[in-house]
UniProtKB/TrEMBL annotation:
GO terms of molecular function: manganese ion binding; metalloaminopeptidase activity
Keyword RNA-binding found: no
Organism of provenance: Sandarakinorhabdus glacialis
Gene3D superfamilies reported for this sequence: Leucine Aminopeptidase, subunit E, domain 1 (3.40.220.10), Zn peptidases (3.40.630.10)
Protein name per the record: Leucyl aminopeptidase
Domain (Cytosol aminopeptidase): residue spans on this chain: 306-313
A Pfam entry, by short name: Peptidase_M17
Record's keyword annotation contains Nucleus: no
GO cellular component: cytoplasm
Taxonomy, superkingdom: Bacteria
Length: 462
C-alpha cells in the first residue's frame, strides 16, 4: 500500500517549493502583479491556468524555483492530481487552502505494483498543508479508495472467493471484528441456496462471509457487497469482449469492505455488519442452467432465465440475511448491470432507495464529497417484468428494457418494507485514465456513502 501519510503533512515551516494555485479567470490579475521576467517565463511555457496545467518559475538563486498549477475556481478532489503527477519529487507549499483537493494529490501517486514495479517515479511529491486537522481524514479516504482499486485490479487467478474472504479477515483482525465464513456444501445447510447454486460450478468453493463489529446496543448498519470474483456468464456465456474485465465483478464487495474499514477506523458508534456472498460464476457439468428454479433464503423461488444475471441471485440471499436483524440502514454495492452503464456511463453509479429522506441525504453527500451519483427510480409497474409462470420471480426479464431498474426491483423483493435500504449499481472501473484515476479499478459512490454515514452517526460529522 502507498505510504499516504508521508505525502500529506502539516506545514512545519521547513524548505519547500511554493505551489501557486491559479484559476484561468484570475491569471491576468496575477500576471499584472508579477515581474516582466515571470510573465515571460509563463508565456514561454504556454501556461493558461487551465485545470491540470503546470509551469515552473525560476528564482533568484541557483536551485531556487517555484511552480504554478492550473485549477478550477472551486477546488474539487481532483484539482491537484495532475500537478502531483507532473511536478518533480520534493516538498511543496500551496499558496492557499487546498481542502478536498488533497485526495487527488494522494491518489495520483498510488500505483498497483503487485505484478510490476512502478516506472518513471523517482520519489514522492509531499504536500505541506496549513489544515492539519484534515490530514487523517484525507489519508483514510485515499487508503480506502486504494483498497478498492487494488482488489478490483487483482486478476481472478489470484483473487477467488477464498482470497476475497482472506482480505476481509485481514481488515477484521486490525479492528477486532468477528468474521464467520460459510463455505461450499455448508451453504445449503445454512440456508444460502442461491449463493450455492451460482458458485457450485467453480473449482473454488463459494462462500458467505459475515463480519460483525461494534457495540450491539448501537444502531445497526449493514453493508452488503456483490463478490463475484469472475463472471464467465455461466452457460449463458459472455462473448470474449464482455468477459475481458470480469475480474472487476467483485467491485461491490470491495466497496463494501472499504466503507466498513472507514467506519471501523473512525470508531463510529454503530453495530456494523458486512455481508459478502463470494462466488465464481463458472461453467461445468454442475452449473446452473437456464430454466432451473432456485430457492432462496427468503423462501421465494426464482426461475433462472439468464445465468449471466447471477449477481442479483447471490445478493437475494445476502439481503435476506441482512434483514433478519432489522438494521437501521442497509447499503448494498454491486457491479450489477450493463444497463446502468448504458444509461449513465462509467463515471456515475446508479443509485436506488426505498426511503425519500435517505435519497435527499445521499444527493447532498454526493455533491459535498465530489463523488457524484444519480438516482434511478424503483418504478413499481416494471415489477410485472419479473413475473414467472412457474416461480415467484424470474431473474432476467425478456426485452432488455429498464435493466438497471428491474434488477433493483428484484433486489427490493428481498428487502422488507420496514428496512431503510440503498442500492448502488456501480461500474467500479475507469475505462480510460484521467488525472489521479488510472485505467482500472475505481471507487464510485464510496466517498458519498462515507459522508452520509458520518453525518448520520458521528457527532457533528466529526
Amino acid at each position: 500500500m502507498t505510504d499516504f501519510p508521508a505525502l500529506l503533512i502539516a506545514d512545519d515551516g521547513g524548505p519547500a517549493k511554493t505551489l501557486t494555485l491559479l484559476a484561468a479567470a484570475g491569471l491576468d490579475d496575477w500576471l499584472c502583479s508579477q515581474s516582466e521576467r515571470t510573465r515571460t517565463f509563463v508565456a514561454a511555457q504556454g501556461f493558461k491556468a487551465q485545470p491540470g496545467e503546470t509551469a515552473l518559475l525560476p528564482g533568484d538563486q541557483p536551485g531556487d524555483w517555484s511552480a504554478l498549477a492550473g485549477v478550477e475556481a472551486d477546488l474539487n478532489p481532483w484539482s491537484l492530481a495532475a500537478a502531483a503527477s507532473r511536478l518533480v519529487p520534493g516538498r511543496y507549499r500551496p499558496s492557499g487552502p487546498i481542502g478536498a483537493a488533497t485526495l487527488g494529490w494522494l491518489l495520483a501517486q498510488h500505483r498497483f505494483t503487485r505484478y510490476r514495479k512502478a516506472s518513471g517515479d523517482t520519489g514522492p511529491r509531499i504536500l505541506l498543508t496549513s489544515e492539519p486537522a484534515a490530514i487523517t481524514e484525507a489519508v483514510r479516504i485515499a487508503e480506502a479508495t486504494a483498497l478498492v482499486r487494488d482488489l478490483v485490479d487483482t486478476p481472478a487467478a489470484d483473487l477467488g472467493p477464498g482470497e476475497l474472504a482472506a482480505a476481509i479477515e485481514a481488515e477484521a483482525r486490525i479492528f477486532g471484528a468477528i468474521v464467520t465464513i460459510t463455505k461450499g456444501e455448508a451453504l445449503l445447510a445454512a440456508n444460502f441456496p442461491a449463493v450455492h447454486a451460482v458458485g457450485r460450478a467453480a473449482s473454488r468453493a463459494p462462500r458467505l462471509i459475515d463480519m460483525h463489529w461494534g457495540d450491539p446496543a448501537h444502531p445497526r448498519v449493514t453493508l452488503v457487497g456483490k463478490g463475484v470474483t469472475f463472471d464467465s456468464g455461466g452457460l449463458n456465456i459472455k462473448p470474449g469482449g464482455g468477459m475481458a474485465a470480469m475480474k472487476k465483478d467483485m467491485g461491490g464487495a470491495a466497496h463494501a469492505l472499504a466503507l466498513a474499514r472507514l467506519v471501523m477506523q473512525a470508531n463510529m458508534p454503530v453495530r456494523l455488519r458486512l455481508i459478502v456472498p463470494a462466488v465464481e460464476n463458472s461453467i461445468s457439468a454442475d452449473a446452473m442452467r437456464p430454466g432451473d428454479i432456485l430457492h432462496t433464503r427468503a423462501g421465494k423461488t426464482v426461475e433462472v432465465t439468464n445465468t449471466d444475471a447471477e449477481g442479483r441471485l447471490i445478493l437475494a440471499d445476502a439481503l435476506a440475511l441482512a434483514a433478519e436483524e432489522n438494521p437501521a440502514l442497509v447499503i448494498d454495492f454491486a457491479t450489477l448491470t450493463g444497463a446502468a452503464r448504458a444509461a449513465l456511463g462509467p463515471q456515475l453509479p446508479a443509485f436506488f432507495t426505498n426511503d425519500e429522506a435517505l435519497a435527499v441525504d445521499f444527493a447532498a453527500a454526493g455533491a459535498l464529497s465530489g463523488d457524484p451519483l444519480w438516482r434511478l427510480p424503483l418504478w413499481a409497474p416494471y415489477a410485472d417484468m419479473l413475473k414467472s409462470g412457474i416461480a415467484d420471480l424470474n431473474n432476467a426479464p425478456d426485452g432488455g428494457f429498464a435493466g438497471a431498474i428491474t434488477a433493483a426491483l428484484f433486489l427490493q423483493a428481498f428487502v422488507p418494507e420496514r428496512i431503510t435500504w440503498a442500492h448502488f449499481d456501480t461500474f467500479a472501473w475507469n475505462p480510460a485514465p484521467r488525472p489521479g484515476r488510472p485505467k482500472g479499478g475505481e471507487a464510485l459512490g464510496l466517498r458519498a456513502s462515507w459522508l452520509l454515514l458520518r453525518s448520520r452517526y458521528l457527532p457533528h460529522g466529526s
